[in-house]
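Z., the sequence and structure:
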Amino acid sequence: MTQYSLLLVDMDGVIWRGGIYVVKNIKALRMLQEKYKVVFMTNNSSLTRAECLERIKAVGINSEINDIYTSSVLAATYIEKRGLGRTFVVGEAGIYEELIVRGIPIVSEGPKVDYVIVGIDKYLTYNKLSKAAYYIMNGAVFIATNEDPTYPVGDRLEPGAGAIVNFIKTVVGREPDFVAGKPNTWILDIVVNKYKLKKEEVLVIGDSLHTDVPMGCRYGVDTLLVLTGVTSERELAYAKTKPTYVARDLLEALTSKII
């Protein structure tokens, strides 16, 4: 296929699974960068963009920090556009970094909290959950970095941000006001406008039938599902929303001339 100008590529489940790199996909990405503009997107809010860039460059993939989008970037951008306010965080370094660079005030206590951002947090405490729910029930805007129930680490799946978001949803009795990451199509709006592209020029590449594929389908761009992450062939067989293309990995996608 030659109609594409830009590839929007997921990271968790495509480039790595936790601390384990997906070698075939990395080899293919090195070759694809010679032909396409490649932009990276991850729902993982724990890593900073600098950390993502370091990991990508360590395996010979070229990129720039402005071509990396995390759900933390999108959550902080949402607050920036809506209006800066005091923000309480359930999450890790990736969220804090993006808030700090935008001058968004971070608070650990009330009395007035304008936003609560909820992401993956491996240092989660009951006290932190309790505070987040309290602030939301008292008027704070409820922002989820994503609602992924799991994320791939090595040969297993671990609890994702969605598990934490669901806890708070149960307590406050409502959905988040804004979900920053995939399948929200906002990232595609940003990329298409930034690079002045038509929808048919963009291909979304990812490993999830719950985030990558529905995001692309809702926006009207093609999608390529690689079976190197969270999706099994059995799950794919029963999926209601199907990708445009499927490959075991990106090298197979290359040899079969999907991309």
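The chain has a mean pLDDT of 94. The domain at 72-179 is CATH 3.40.50.1000 (Rossmann fold).

Let me know what you think.
H.
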